[in-house]
Design a protein that fits this description.
Elements (H helix, E strand, L loop, with lengths): L18 E6 L5 E7 L2 H8 L8 H9 L2 E6 L3 H15 L15 E4 L8 E4 L8 E3 L5 H12 L9 H10 L4 H4 L13 H15 L4 H16 L3 H19 L11 E8 L3 E10 L2 E11 L6 H14 L20 E4 L6 H12 L4 E3 L4 H27 L1 H15 L7 E10 L2 E11 L2 E2 L5 E4 L8 H26 L25 E5 L2 H13 L7 E6 L4 E3 L14 H33 L8 H11 L2 H6 L2 H5 L6 H13 L5 E2 L6 E2 L12
Parallel strand pairs: 7-10, 10-11, 12-16, 16-17
Antiparallel strand pairs: 1-2, 1-3, 4-5, 4-6, 7-8, 8-9, 12-13, 13-14, 13-15, 17-18, 19-20
Helix pairs in contact: 3-11, 8-9, 10-11, 13-16, 14-15
Length: 675
């Protein structure tokens, strides 16, 4: 492990111009590549106090043994050089979006004399037309089988085609009407190419003209009493309609665009892309990558776009008349604005040969579509986490790592995590989540309404939550001891009520969200109830993902690939999610009461009835007077007064001052509140 001071450039030797830099290890292997508008400022940030650096950056600078840089003229050149070096050196500390599989595409061998259509994977060939990639191979094969009845283009391999030509007899597809059999001269190469052109036009989203033409031919055949031909055209029209309906229209203006969204957590990043052609979603892909450096949202998006389009590994329809070149649409919609927006747009425009626009949609259909892609990215990340966490061997390894790192005498089979949520001291709530054997135990989750809070002391709120939980643990144990004699164990079921004593289960480990101050506050509660020797405690600081232990001056830094760290992070994040959900629910109810305080004849009982009927303030705002009048206890006059009150007061959305998050008014969690 190298000391960064041993290879730090001498003061004043680093230029202040824009450029690209690379760190390499003692063997000369490049391990990180970056760019900067001011090389001196950026590189000096790596050689500050190492304890102030991000853990991933710490590992990078201590692994490196040399640093070099290249000065460029402008930001565009720095983007190009950075991408070139990343592709050349494949540095392990850069975020690399590697897919876990190859996605199928549909190809038309346009440069052949008799074009062929087939589904394939892998690299592209110059002169052929590609459509995709698609999410599932079976779906595009099914679509192709349907379209072959309408566009009987050749789909057989070269060997089958040559054998049929030499024998003078078509293959089975020629007999069943799924191929026009150019191999035996049923159709000329020119006519077959016209069929292939129609097929490509349909796959590129230009289906309206084809449908109108087939409808006209069908009507003409019917008028000429050619009913068999009309029936064939009718079946073709139905097949086209069926194939078209599989891709829902998402943009009514027929836009060609790629819609890209990120979903992030401190350790990983998920990316989802929808390929929209002719206003329809023609394909989608997803990636999950480790966050190997401290890049922010803007840098991650920029790196992804460079890797996606710079590699030319995505094609979608006919970008150019020849079907060649990178698959760059005219519009790229992103969830986060790239760091070098103008330079990146210029680089992609140069690659496409025409202008490419990169922007973040703010409203309308494009914003709605971006929300959908973002939800899919979040789902991709969640499914990746679930798949990783649900593996028994992985969970066992994670629990063993936590046991070793924290110095426990046994694996923490039951872990509890706590979090506090409020906005400027209002509607303060706490959450408790439980993981048993590395998996969530949602029936054991609890939520707390903080009763004593002065609006500024989060430690007091955490003290109250832990005190209430541990007090119940002690009380249940005392009750169990009174039921039986010495040396025996009492029942975990209350004999009076018949309800289980759920708080009688002691956790093996308590995880709090925060660093040393939060851990110290929690430790005081454990000592107050005499449980500090029985229950282990740690804190997980969100900024650097450090594990803090009681009475320790320095945190424990787990490797980024540690399954133990991954499990602790998932437990902490679940407590945060559960607290935020409860806070939103209470805030929605309080807002309804506040907005309706001045409505004559609307007391507390009717307010509760109103909220219980509609479920949330958002749903209540959408309701009209007639819908409200149908609620028991409401009439037309009172319903009209409620609508007027809601219309007159539309408060601005509240923002969590700690995270900057905009909080909506729609509660989405149905867990029972702990009194």
């Amino acid at each position: 492990m190298a000391d960064p001071s041993t290879y730090r450039p001498a003061p004043g030797t680093i230029p202040t111009e824009p450029g690209v830099y690379r760190f390499s290890d003692e063997h000369g292997q490049v391990i990180y590549v970056g760019k900067a508008k001011n090389l001196r400022n950026r590189l000096n940030s790596y050689f500050q106090d190492i304890s102030a650096l991000h853990p991933r950056t710490q590992r990078m600078v201590t692994t490196a043994a040399h640093v070099q840089w290249t000065v460029v003229q402008n930001e565009l050149e720095s983007l190009q050089l950075e991408y070139t070096w990343i592709k050349e050196y494949d540095p392990r500390f850069n975020v690399m979006y590697r897919d876990d599989k190859t996605y199928p595409w549909l190809c038309v061998t346009w440069s052949d004399e008799i074009p062929r259509v087939f589904v394939g994977r892998g690299a592209h060939r110059r002169g052929w037309r590609y459509f995709g990639p698609f999410g599932q191979a079976w779906a595009i094969r099914d679509t192709m089988e349907t379209l072959l009845r309408v566009f009987p283009i050749r789909s057989c391999s070269t060997g089958v085609f040559n054998r049929a030509r030499s024998q003078g007899r078509p293959c089975l597809l020629g007999y069943i009407g799924k191929c026009s059999a150019p191999c035996v001269g049923r159709i000329t190469p020119e006519a077959h190419r016209e069929i292939a052109e129609d097929f490509c036009s349909f796959m590129a989203g230009r289906s309206t003209g084809l449908v109108h033409r087939i409808e006209g031919e069908m009507e003409q055949a019917s008028e000429n009493l050619e009913f068999e031909k009309a029936a064939v055209l009718r079946d073709s029209l139905e097949a086209l309609t069926k194939a078209t309906e599989r891709n829902a229209i998402v943009l009514g203006d027929g836009t060609d665009a790629d819609v890209i969204a990120l979903a992030l957590d401190p350790l990983e990043v998920a990316v989802k892309i929808f390929h929209v052609r002719g206003g329809r979603v023609r394909g989608e892909r997803g990636w999950v990558a480790d966050r190997a450096d401290a890049a922010d949202d803007a840098d991650l998006m920029e790196h992804f776009l460079l890797q996606l389009y710079g590699a030319g590994d995505v094609t979608q329809g006919e970008v150019r008349e020849s079907g060649e070149g990178p698959a760059l649409p005219r519009l790229v919609l992103v969830s986060h604005e790239p760091a070098s927006l103008e330079a990146l747009a210029g680089l992609l425009s140069e690659a496409r040969g025409s202008r490419v626009e990169i922007r973040v949609p703010r409203r309308g259909d494009k914003r709605t579509l971006m929300d959908t892609v973002t939800r899919n990215a979040e789902e991709t990340l969640a499914q990746h986490k679930l798949k990783r966490a649900s593996d028994l061997a992985t969970r066992t390894r994670a629990l063993q790592e936590i046991q070793e790192v924290l110095g426990l005498d046994r694996a923490p089979l039951r872990m509890e995590s706590y979090d506090i949520s409020h906005i400027q001291g209002r509607q303060v709530v706490g959450s408790m989540v439980v993981f048993e054997d590395g998996m969530p135990r949602k029936s054991e989750y609890r939520r707390f309404i903080i009763k004593s809070f002065d609006g500024s002391d989060d430690f007091a709120a955490m003290h109250e939550v832990l005190s209430r939980r541990l007090r119940r643990l002690v009380e249940d144990r005392e009750a169990m001891a009174e039921e039986v004699g010495d040396g025996e164990t009492g029942s975990l079921v209350d004999p009076t009520t018949g309800a289980p004593r759920k708080f009688a289960y002691a956790p093996h480990l308590i995880v709090v969200d925060g660093g040393a101050p939060q851990v110290h506050a929690a430790q005081e509660v454990l000592e107050e109830y005499g449980l500090s020797d029985e229950i282990a405690l740690c804190g997980l600081a969100k900024r650097l993902e450090e594990v803090w232990l009681p009475d320790e001056e320095w945190p424990v830094i787990l490797p980024r690939t540690s399954e133990g760290l991954y499990l602790l992070q998932r437990l902490r994040d679940e407590a945060h999610r559960f607290a935020i959900t409860f806070h939103r629910s209470r805030r929605s109810k309080a807002m309804v009461e506040s907005l309706l305080d001045d409505v004559p004849g609307l007391g507390e009982t009717r307010r509760k009835t109103l909220l219980a009927h509609f479920g949330s303030l958002r749903a209540l705002r959408r309701a009209d007077a007639e819908e409200i009048a149908r609620v028991p206890g409401f009439g037309p006059v009172l319903a009209g007064a409620v609508v007027d009150a809601l219309s007159a007061r539309k408060p601005e959305p509240a923002v969590n001052t700690a995270t900057g998050e905009i909080l909506d008014d729609d509660p989405s969690d149905g867990h029972t509140m702990e009194p």
